[in-house]
Amino acid sequence: MTAKSPQPQQQTLQLATLSATYNIILQISLRVVTFVANAVILRSISRDVFGVINVRLLLLYTTIQFLSREPFRRVSIGATKTHDWPLVVNLISLSIPLSLVFGTVLSLIWYYILERPDPQLVADYGTGVAAVFVSVVVELLAEPVYVWAQTQGFIKLKVAAEGLFLIVRTLITVAFVAQWPHRAVLVFAGAQLCASALYTAVYYVYFIGAQKQRFRHFMPDWFDSKQSSTIDRSLVGITASFLKNTALKQFLTEGERFVMTFFRVLTFAEQGVYDVVNNLGSLPARLVFAQIEDSGFVLFTQKIDRQRAPTDQTGTDLLESAVILRNFVRLMSLLGLIILTFGFNYSELALLMYGGRQLAAGDGGLATRLLQWHCVYVLFLAVNGMTECFTFAAMNSRQLDAFNKNMVNISVVFLVSSYLFTNWFGAQGFIMANCLNMAARIVISVRFINSYYGSTKIDAPLNGSIPHLWTNLSFVATFGVLFIIKPYLCCAADSSITQAIAYVILGLICLAI
């Protein structure tokens, strides 16, 4: 018995690893599909329509969905271990009436209180709002099956359902928006409803058809005579607590979009451009930085025990963790400098290839300026990602609580600065506020790192994490050369493809040097 006892734990770890792997693949795939789809759609519709769909309507969608679904998911998946399945299903079913409440209130706000787009520029706005509301309710019908699938280890099913949802929505939108660009919101509404219906159908067809589960297994029963109670009030209380946390998380996560939507600091066209640039600029963070950060976090957790004081841990592990941290921060700094140096100078060319001259040069070169500022932001993002990796691996529960309080304060400052900076500097004010936000988080993490090692014999753990002086000077020289030559070779109205290719070759030579 003793020899076999670790097997369930090992299976759980393998399942968690598999789930994380599939989730990473799913997130990367979703980013790539969205990236390609936006490039196609941008050439068919106006930036105003793009802004309404990708900012206004998708913010409504994620808000209703997140508030109605996330608290129940968090509680229900854990509750399957301690409660009978009928009680769990009854709890999950409460997400439907909650979605009707949230959906009704938010839809009325989106349609009657927020400024509506000009019908001449953006038709069918009301239909889009209604379709988003209904699509969330349709998807919530699959929640009992989703929770059952997660607890039974059907990891691939989630990837398949969410992948099909995005692919169907994207294909329908791309296929029909080119035919009816003036009815793009209506096309999006139809695509959203079709994708949501397919998402729900996939779960039920798989379990009822392939797994031979009875349909009744996933239906709530409020009049079950075999149960002493049809709902567990303690679970409802925990769900209510998670709802508060979810509301705060949604507000902080989508802070930029809420500021855009409720304060109208940007026009719909500017919102559309910002969304395109944000998706384009975040690719390095999603595809490269996240993988390095995950590896760093695993290494830190193997060397550091968060439950023990630094003085109680072995000197070898502490020294190795400091070396790992120093090397990772230097690596991320170099990657950030590469993206800043080359991304800043090649922003206009990238946008020209991605969305055409209308995107790259429209609105006085707004998209180009936004992407250039995003390259600056990526440098802050790179350094912060690794310093926070160490912070999260080393902090105990008390320190994490204090850190979370600081994060709330920083987020409030970010929202305020976003509003002020956009009024002062325009759309790039959002990215400036993000830089300020990341700089504050870096300061907090660096202070923790120095205090963590302060009680040990390791002095200045981050010493050497900044790239060498000559390396930095080479980046400065490269930036200057590319910046000076750019007007003569690239992106001017009369520039040829040959000149653009020559500019790219020059950049590759500089990168190699």
From TrEMBL:
Q: Does the keyword Transmembrane helix apply?
A: yes
Residue ranges crossing the lipid bilayer per the database entry: 21-43, 87-113, 125-147, 159-178, 184-206, 334-356, 376-395, 407-425, 469-489
* UniProt keyword Endoplasmic reticulum present: yes
- Subcellular location per the Swiss-Prot or TrEMBL entry: Endoplasmic reticulum membrane
Its pathway, per UniProt, is: Protein modification; protein glycosylation
| Topology term for the membrane | Multi-pass membrane protein
Biological process according to GO:
dolichol-linked oligosaccharide biosynthetic process; glycolipid translocation
Q: Name one GO cellular component term.
A: endoplasmic reticulum membrane
Q: Which UniProt keywords apply?
A: Endoplasmic reticulum, Membrane, Transmembrane, Transmembrane helix
A Pfam family this protein belongs to?
Answer: Rft-1
* Physiological role: Intramembrane glycolipid transporter that operates in the biosynthetic pathway of dolichol-linked oligosaccharides, the glycan precursors employed in protein asparagine (N)-glycosylation. The sequential addition of sugars to dolichol pyrophosphate produces dolichol-linked oligosaccharides containing fourteen sugars, including two GlcNAcs, nine mannoses and three glucoses. Once assembled, the oligosaccharide is transferred from the lipid to nascent proteins by oligosaccharyltransferases.
The record's family statement is: Belongs to the RFT1 family.
What name does the UniProt record give this protein?
A: Protein RFT1 homolog
According to its UniProt entry, this protein's organism is: Medioppia subpectinata
